[in-house]
Amino acid sequence: ESIEIVREVTEGGTVHYEGEIFEVGPYSMALDSEGVPIYNGAMGPLNRQLTAEFCDGWIPGLVSIDHLAQLHEEMIETAEKADREPPTVAPWVPTAVDEDPEHAMRRVQQLIAREMAMGYNEGMEQYGFRDEADLAFERFRAGDRTGAADAIPQEMVEILGVYGTPEDVRMQYERYFD
Predict the structure, then answer these.
(1) How far apart are CA 172 and CA 158, in angstroms?
(2) Is the pTM of this model over 0.85?
(3) Residue ranges of the alpha helices (H) in the chain?
């Protein structure tokens, strides 16, 4: 329903929506922005399915490159069943560029720790990092940002993020483009 409401709002004119969850309007919009692409940061299976059926793009976050390919295939299949073009994939990949790769890795640890504190720790079990993610969650929420970043192992950084020198990062991103 929220996707349908956003689409109505971006088309301008009068917005009037009555769904099972939301009721909006009627009210007039002074927008003239028809055709604005709608991207969704879907994580769970049902939300990814709805993204494939209704959205123009998908913004996955904290997904390993290997898992991303599998999820993308599922979205293509779902979009085809809905007689739609598959959504564009624009992953959010925690990234840090620095001439000192250790410094860059530390920055990505900090970014991932922050995400764990927002509840993404629950999805890390699929990668074998549930305990580490939960520890980062607890430490970050307790105000220990350094300890939260320390809880993120290098292996987790390597499957969820990209870091290093400019050349290192360029090469790592080629995997995503491929």
Answers:
(1) 10
(2) no
(3) 2-11, 45-54, 65-81, 101-117, 130-141, 145-150, 154-160, 166-177
Residue 62 DSSP class: S
Neighbours of 131 (CB within 10 A): 12
CB 63 within 8 A of CB 70: no
Per-residue pLDDT in tens (0 to 9) along the chain, 178 residues: 998 998 888 887 889 999 999 999 898 877 767 778 999 999 889 999 999 999 999 999 999 988 998 999 999 999 999 999 999 999 999 999 999 999 999 999 999 999 999 999 999 999 999 999 999 999 999 999 999 999 999 999 999 999 999 999 999 999 888 8
- Whole-angstrom Cα distance, residue 134 to residue 52? 30
Going by C-beta distance under 8 Å and a sequence separation of 6 or more, which residues neighbour residue 140? 113, 114, 116, 117, 148
